[in-house]
Design a protein that fits this description.
The protein has about 150 residues and is an all-alpha fold. The chain has nine helices and two strands; from the N terminus they run H-H-H-H-H-H-E-E-H-H-H.
């Protein structure tokens, strides 16, 4: 967070932290791609503000387009991260492989294995680069605590 604040990236730190803590709450019901939507519903029922619900809903992958949402049988709307907080959460979540945070090379290999290098893969890579550019440093280096400045997000 400090790194983003130092670069004057306007983010709502409290919402990002809360979204990070709650983003996988839908996994209490399912482990499929709908966990974001289900988690958002749970959060809304518990009285969380829309901003938090959208963080939960839009964190899956690099977001889902309207067409992809239809293919997965989700409510028909786009689930692509829009706010800076949504983009950061989705990008960082993509680096979590079980209980470890991976390097960019492992992230790239995983995405290419899953999606070749098509449109979906390009969306993952664009999100990664956008957040890295916000940080002024490679995202995976920062989140793994290997930043030259010794600070995580």
């Amino acid at each position: 967070m400090k790194k983003l604040q130092e670069r004057n990236v306007g983010i709502d730190v409290n919402s990002l932290i809360l979204g990070a803590l709650l983003h996988d709450i839908g996994r209490s019901v399912t482990h499929d791609i709908s966990h974001g939507v289900i988690g958002s519903i749970i959060a809304k029922e518990e009285g969380f503000p829309d901003k938090i619900c959208l963080l939960i809903e839009r964190h899956v992958g690099a977001g889902l387009t309207l067409e992809e949402a239809r293919e997965f049988g989700l409510p028909e709307r786009a689930y692509v991260p829009v706010s800076m907080e949504e983009k950061i959460l989705a990008a960082v979540d993509n680096l979590a492989f079980g209980d470890r945070l991976v390097a960019k090379e492992d992230f790239v290999k995983d995405i290419e294995r899953k999606f070749d290098s098509g449109e979906v893969a390009q969306r993952f890579f664009a999100l990664y680069e956008e957040v890295s550019n916000m940080l002024g440093e490679d995202l995976s280096v920062v989140v793994r605590g290997e930043s030259a400045f010794g600070q995580a997000l």
